[in-house]
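Page 42, continued from yesterday. The earlier attempt failed because a stray header line got pasted into the input along with the sequence. Redoing it now with the clean sequence only.
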Amino acid sequence: MATSHPEPTSRQTWSADTYERNTRFVSDLGAGVVEWLAPGPGERILDLGCGDGALTVKLVQAGADVVGVDASDNFVEAARKLGLDVRLMDGHALAFEREFDAVFSNAALHWMLRPEAVVSGVARALKPGGRFVAEFGGHMNVAALSTAMRAVGDAMGGDVDIAGPWFYPTEDEYSAMLRAGGFEVEKIARFARPTPLPTGARGWLETMRAPFFDQFGERREEAYDRVLRALKPSLCDRAGNWTADYVRLRFIARLPG
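This time it went through. Structure tokens are written below.
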């Protein structure tokens, strides 16, 4: 679920243990896009941005021959411990040629900030007639979370761009990219999916946006407190349960046969 080569000041790092504790719901909620993929026995599938392999395992259990790629050393190590064929690779520079029946991705494409390069690499990796099936953040994803961080970053004199280093397109924008890359778009949908946060907004922020808070050094805790205070009226209910304002984009696209 990682990408490569962000700016040094905003580099996102991953811990499989922290991810498991704070954001396991990301892969748990991937069942819908796996249904769209409908992996078949013997199919060769590339899992792009496979993270710690939680969904990769499900594709293997369906009988597919699966290769996973991720740009995080920590995730690749965790996935390999599950016995998976997972390789350290930048999603912008996939090193495959006409090898796969399908390319699958869950909650990873929004971390890859050169989407045209990703689409081009996926097209090269697929056999003629192969399909690209994925789900990732769509336009307006985590809008409240991002806005609160940007407001606090501005007030504290920080780099506000580190608050939201993601690519969240509309369905029209991404459909155009897919078509420009040689794909036929069979189905695409953008939908809201309010998502409970098991360890609260603090756990989400620590996992997904630690670089934003780390830039404040000794004032790091102050930044967390300010962001949480700003978010609480809209994302936390009276019982203290936090919900993230997720919006997802899911699609099936296919190369001509």
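Notes: The beta strands are 44-48, 65-70, 86-88, 100-106, 126-137, 184-192, 195-196, 243-244, 247-254.
Reminder to self: strip header lines before submitting.
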